[in-house]
Amino acid sequence: MIRVLRWVIALCVVLALGVTIVMSSLVPRQRPPADLEVTITPELLARGTYLVDHVLLCNDCHSERDWTRYGGPPMPPLGAGRECMTRQTATIGVRVSEGQSNFPGVLCIRNITPDPGSGIGNWTDGELSRAIREGVDRDGNGLFPIMPYFIYRHISDTDMRAVIAYMRSLAPVAAERPERDIDFPMSLLIQWFPEPLEGPVAHPDPADSVATGRYLATIARCDFCHTPRRGQGKEGIAGMAFAGGVPFVLGARETPSRNLTPDATGIGPWTRQAFIDRFRLFGDRHSVATLEDNTLMDWSAYAGMTDADLGAIYDFLRSLPPITSAAAPDPAS
Ligand code: HEC
Ligand code: HEC
After folding, report:
1. What is the pLDDT of residues 210-247, one digit of tens each?
2. 107, 150, 153, 233, 267 from 156: Cα distances, Å
3. pLDDT at residue 24 in the model
């Protein structure tokens, strides 16, 4: 009798453990939203606007884009979200593939204007910070990692406040986007991706140009596009930082990102000024005849960065180990 009871108890323990493991894998790892209250000052708002327009490029995803102009500038109403990606069309602003797409479900890039119903008007500052840097929405669900929260987790606490100030300043737009509908197993995988921050995120020392450049090259996603990685992984392939060669598809044209290391096949021959000038050169929003003449790197937005910030990115890139790669940039003239 006692033996049977022991077995029953053991079985119950195993079952309870199993249920706990299954249940905990259905919700992302998360912490409660921070108790944050952003006081909006003109300086903070100016910093937030600069970051969003020229570094973070939130509206390049959260708005429709005008692909008849170079870089595909976001079109007003800014932040109101955009057409959904579906199983038939994968659009990241551009129709990258015709017919059947590989997108596992339906995903609509959301309205992040302060509209209370369809936007983020009712979210707290802590909830916004958690969504942007830790990938967990208001209801505790993991965001699809097309939202680059795993990159934005490096945004410093001061800059996070600036971005929130900017979001609160957007004109509220009532634009309801359909709920997402992601297929299994992706629906489960996206719950495993988020990682809570462990503490405060410090801002780089402004006197340290290399540290500032590393910070900007991370949050401006230069690293993400210019470092080869396996699949859509968070981590780049070891020893390949900024080696370029990542394929990007624009209409019928495939164009790789370029080698940004200080090698002869990278930006080795470029001076600091030539690097800054390259951005200014592509800075205008000239009209382009076909999608293939355009670029997925929004040069014109980045061209609005200050000389100090572009120069810091250059200083950081020069500090990297040189890597020889076939994906050389065009010679700087
Ligand atoms: C590369 C595209 C991309 C960029 C850049 C991007 N987002 Fe997103 N964002 C998304 C997608 C896609 C979602 C929806 C994810 C989902 O529903 O699972 C999203 C969701 C969000 C949400 C959650 C909204 C909700 O209702 O759940 C917020 C807040 C947000 N983004 C803010 C920002 C901010 C602020 C920036 C710039 C710092 C930014 N995003 C940059 C693609 C992007
Ligand atoms: C969305 C992906 C993406 C992002 C983000 C991105 N790049 Fe690029 N980059 C590319 C691609 C693709 C090319 C190839 C040429 C083109 O399409 O403009 C390129 C080309 C370049 C070139 C070579 C230009 C030439 O004349 O050959 C430089 C320099 C460069 N990127 C620097 C940067 C820096 C610095 C950042 C961050 C501020 C950055 N990129 C962010 C995708 C990206």
Report:
1. 999 999 999 999 999 999 998 767 789 999 999 999 98
2. 28, 13, 8, 22, 28
3. 57
Output the six-digit token pair for 63: 């708005």
Range of weakest confidence among 95-109, 161-175, 293-307, 312-326: 95-109
The rounded distance, in Å, linking the Cα atoms of 55 and 39 is 22
Distance CA 226, CA 267 (A): 13
Nearest-ligand number for the alpha carbon of 170: 1
Q: Over the Cα atoms of the chain, what is R_g?
A: 22
116: left (phi over 0), alpha (psi -120 to 50) or beta: alpha
Using the atom order of ligand 1, give the atom closest to the CA of residue 85: 12
- What is the phi/psi pair of residue 41, to 5°? -115, 160
Given a contact cutoff of 8 angstroms between Cβ atoms, the answer to whether 114 and 167 are in contact is yes
Taking the C-alpha atoms of 61, 146, 312 and 155 in order, what is their torsion angle to the nearest 10 degrees?
A: 100
The closest ligand to the CA of 83 turns out to be: 1
Query: Cα of 318 to ligand 2 centre, how many Å?
Result: 16
Name the token pair of 237. Answer: 């392939």
- Whether the pLDDT of residue 96 is over 60: the answer is no
Ligand 2 pocket at CB < 6 A = 217, 220-222, 225-226, 248, 255, 257-258, 260, 278, 295-297, 302, 313, 329-330
CA distance linking residue 244 with residue 6, whole number of Å = 61
Token duo for residue 68: 């008849």
| Dihedral pair phi/psi, residue 137, rounded to 5° | -80, -175
147 C-alpha to center of ligand 1: Å? 5
